[in-house]
């Protein structure tokens, strides 16, 4: 009985948070002189009204799933990986590099190779904070944030010195490394939908399997629950911390390859962070750090972001409003204690 | 009687809109047009997509929107329907924004800024019927041939930068001037080299500090760079850095409050306002994105869409120049500006665009 109830509240809190977030967004719109009904209709149409926007929505949430998985995976081991953004950038560059350098491979070899390169680069960026944490107890929040900036500037410097093409970017990758598909584009009226969404789903399955069906996953989760107890039980805590950051970084790197091999097919010199890595934190929080939760949360946020474009175009509501709504949703999830208290209150009343 | 008729008309149209319900966006928009417009002779619809700087960047996005607003008002178009802007918060938004406006039936869609080049090129090749315009860059296909359905708009920024360089070179007291660039690129290099050439022409001994923020949207970086340059003794800084340049103004104003005499040269629009109340704007290099947007919109509405062509706005077309507000510019400097304006127009002076051209220009002085 208790288990059932827990499962129910695990689903209910995100749901209530989303509804409250949208309601609060409507109130803000009312106060700022916009029409919330028109805006939300436009938002909805901007996600579902035609195949183009549906394709774009899937395209938008593909990397979000993977960055969400990256954050969630580290979180299961009790680590806050704020460095997903940086790991994503190096992954993006690595995938583009492999896509550019190897010519004449079949797609069946080239694409996995490029994705693996991205995973390796992300893992490399994750191993540094993992090692510092395990060996010297340097807090990973500090180091991962710093690694983000290192990644941004190193990646820009590499592109500028070695891979520069006209337009402040790299050349476009070879067709054999591209996840883009003429077929998917033709059924979605030229959206940038690509086969990356399959990669993201596979990623979610891998995360679930690794955490719940293997000894390694059991150890990782044990470390997340209580490091001292794990140590006492004979689990090598340091090794697990490093490993967790490596796997988390690998997910983040693959998220970057979705942009490199799918959406763009190249990498631009970035003047600022993409935000996909930071959104991953929100996704994993709303998704309660579970694989299926992350997929659903990413779909929601991806949809909101694409729908926001139409909302702006039709109802003149700034796209920033959606950022506020997302922030509010996270706020309500974080203050889930309040929601739980209310629902317990209601349940008790019902019984009496 | 007329009123009643109008009401009936709109009721019928409203019913039509409702009934057509799931019809494509184009049809809906079309109906609203006829219903809402009073003096609306034609149903020309034009829209622009901003880059990540946003429509209030106090720079070229804003300037483009001002041009579009003027065009809309002059032709009795309705804002939000017949002419409007859509902002992009991330680079990945460019393509859906452009495609969305085309699907909504806009006759002409602008992409503002060279950051949008790739996306314009992609969309233009997918939607052959669409009419697009790209500001600050030239749209081409894979073979480097111009795309027939894109009007490319570029500016001779080096010419305008040369003129403000003359002013900077003449009015600096410390003989040290600075240039703050946004992102190292072919485009911003035109600003840099034009400016440097202008300074050196009138003041060969002047020292010129050049630094790029590698960011168009970080006023903190702009402020930090300006702090260093003013600290090293520069008293005039020219910025070509979009919103990053706002930090240069902040720093200059802080120093002006402490009694230092420092100047900023604005970019893209007349940035006199940005320098107030401390009055630190020496002049601005104006790039008439608004004129360009207005002109191309007008041509397109009249059926002369300049697709596949590069429309270049230079001194001759009044596309670039120095700002209207000339309060802080000395008489001598203005005379020099007029003198060189003529020389550039009649080809006597060829203003350098690239680093190599600059080297040759300076050695020829």
UniProtKB/TrEMBL annotation, chain A:
Subcellular location: Cell membrane
Record protein name field: ABC transporter permease
Residues spanning the membrane: 12-31, 37-54, 104-128, 140-159, 193-212, 241-258, 264-286, 291-309, 321-342
Keywords per UniProt: Cell membrane, Membrane, Transmembrane, Transmembrane helix
InterPro entries assigned to the protein according to its UniProt record, in alphabetical order: ABC_transp_permease
GO molecular function: transmembrane transporter activity
Gene Ontology annotations for the cellular component aspect, listed alphabetically: plasma membrane
Pfam families per UniProt: BPD_transp_2
Keyword GTP-binding set for record: no
Top-level taxon of the source organism: Bacteria
Topology in membrane: Multi-pass membrane protein
UniProtKB/TrEMBL annotation, chain B:
CDD domains registered for this protein in UniProt: PBP1_PrnA-like
Gene3D superfamilies: 3.40.50.2300
Cellular localization per UniProt: Cell membrane
Keywords recorded for this protein, A-Z: Cell membrane, Lipoprotein, Membrane, Signal
GO cellular component terms, semicolon-separated: plasma membrane
Domain ABC transporter substrate-binding protein PnrA-like stretches: 45-354
Main location: membrane
Membrane-related topology note: Lipid-anchor
Signal peptide (from-to): 1-25
UniProt keyword annotation of Lipid metabolism present: no
One Pfam entry name: Bmp
Family: Belongs to the BMP lipoprotein family.
Alphabetical list of PANTHER family matching this protein: ABC TRANSPORTER GUANOSINE-BINDING PROTEIN NUPN, TRANSCRIPTIONAL ACTIVATOR PROTEIN MED
Protein name: BMP family ABC transporter substrate-binding protein
């Amino acid at each position: 009985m208790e288990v059932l109830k827990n499962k129910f509240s695990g689903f209910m809190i995100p749901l209530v948070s989303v509804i409250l977030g949208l309601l609060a967004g409507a109130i803000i719109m009312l106060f700022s002189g916009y029409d919330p009904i028109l805006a939300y209709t436009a938002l909805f149409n901007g996600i579902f009204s035609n195949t183009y926007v549906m394709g774009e929505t899937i395209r938008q949430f593909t990397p979000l799933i993977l960055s969400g998985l990256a954050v969630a995976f580290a979180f299961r081991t009790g680590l806050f990986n704020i460095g997903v953004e940086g790991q994503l950038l190096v992954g993006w560059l690595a995938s583009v590099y492999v896509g550019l350098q190897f010519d004449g491979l079949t797609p069946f070899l080239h694409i996995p190779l490029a994705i693996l390169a991205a995973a390796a680069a992300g893992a490399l960026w994750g191993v540094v904070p993992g090692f510092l944490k395990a060996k010297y107890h340097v807090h990973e929040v500090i180091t991962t944030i710093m690694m983000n900036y290192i990644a941004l500037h190193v990646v820009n410097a590499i592109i500028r010195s070695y891979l520069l093409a006209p337009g402040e970017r790299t050349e476009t990758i070879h067709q054999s490394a591209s996840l883009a598909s003429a077929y998917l584009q033709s059924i979605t009226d030229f959206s940038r939908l690509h086969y990356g969404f399959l990669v993201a789903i596979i990623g979610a399955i891998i995360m679930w399997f690794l955490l719940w069906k293997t000894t390694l996953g059991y150890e990782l989760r044990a470390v997340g629950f209580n490091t001292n107890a794990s140590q006492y039980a004979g689990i090598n805590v340091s090794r697990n911390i490093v490993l967790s950051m490596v796997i988390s970084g690998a997910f983040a790197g693959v998220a970057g390859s979705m942009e490199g091999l799918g959406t763009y097919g190249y990498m631009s010199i970035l003047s600022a962070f993409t935000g996909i890595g930071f959104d991953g934190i929100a996704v994993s929080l709303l998704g309660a750090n579970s694989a299926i939760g992350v997929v659903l949360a990413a779909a929601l946020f991806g949809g909101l972001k694409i729908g926001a474009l139409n909302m702006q175009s039709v109802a003149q509501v700034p796209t920033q409003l959606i950022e506020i709504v997302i922030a509010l949703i996270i706020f309500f999830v974080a203050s889930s204690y309040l929601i739980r208290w209310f629902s317990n209150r209601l349940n008790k009343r019902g019984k009496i | 009687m007329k009123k009643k008729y109008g009401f009936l008309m709109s009721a019928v149209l409203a019913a039509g809109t409702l009934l057509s319900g799931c019809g494509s966006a184009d049809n809906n928009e079309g109906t609203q047009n006829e219903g809402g417009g009073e003096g609306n002779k034609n149903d020309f619809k034009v829209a622009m997509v901003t880059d990540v700087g946003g429509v209030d960047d106090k720079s070229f996005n804003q300037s483009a929107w001002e041009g579009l607003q003027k065009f809309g008002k002059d032709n009795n178009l309705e804002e939000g329907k017949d002419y409007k802007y859509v902002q992009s918060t991330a680079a990945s938004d460019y393509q859906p924004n452009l495609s969305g406006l085309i699907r909504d039936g806009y006759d002409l869609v602008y992409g503002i800024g060279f950051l949008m080049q790739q996306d314009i090129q992609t969309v233009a090749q997918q939607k052959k019927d669409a009419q697009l315009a790209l500001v600050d860059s030239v749209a081409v296909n894979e073979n480097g041939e111009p795309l027939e359905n894109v009007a490319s708009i570029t500016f001779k920024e080096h010419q305008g930068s040369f003129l403000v360089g003359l002013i900077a070179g003449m009015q600096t007291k410390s003989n040290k001037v600075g240039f703050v660039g946004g992102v190292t690129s072919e485009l911003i290099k035109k600003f840099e080299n034009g400016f440097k050439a202008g300074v050196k022409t009138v003041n060969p001994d002047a020292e010129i500090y050049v630094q790029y923020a590698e960011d168009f949207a970080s006023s903190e970086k702009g402020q930090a760079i300006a702090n260093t340059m003013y600290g090293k003794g520069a008293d005039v800084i020219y910025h070509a850095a979009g919103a990053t340049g706002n930090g240069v103004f902040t720093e200059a104003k802080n120093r002006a409050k402490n009694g230092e005499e420092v100047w900023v040269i604005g970019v893209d629009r007349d940035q006199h306002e940005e320098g107030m109340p401390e009055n630190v704007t020496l002049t601005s290099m104006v790039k008439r994105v608004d004129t360009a947007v207005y002109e191309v919109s007008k041509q397109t509405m009249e059926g002369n869409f300049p697709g596949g062509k590069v429309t270049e706005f230079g001194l001759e077309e009044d596309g670039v120049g120095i700002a209207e507000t000339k309060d802080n510019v000395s008489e001598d400097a203005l005379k020099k500006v007029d003198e060189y304006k003529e020389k550039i127009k009649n080809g006597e002076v060829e203003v350098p665009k690239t680093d190599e051209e600059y080297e040759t220009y300076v050695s020829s002085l």
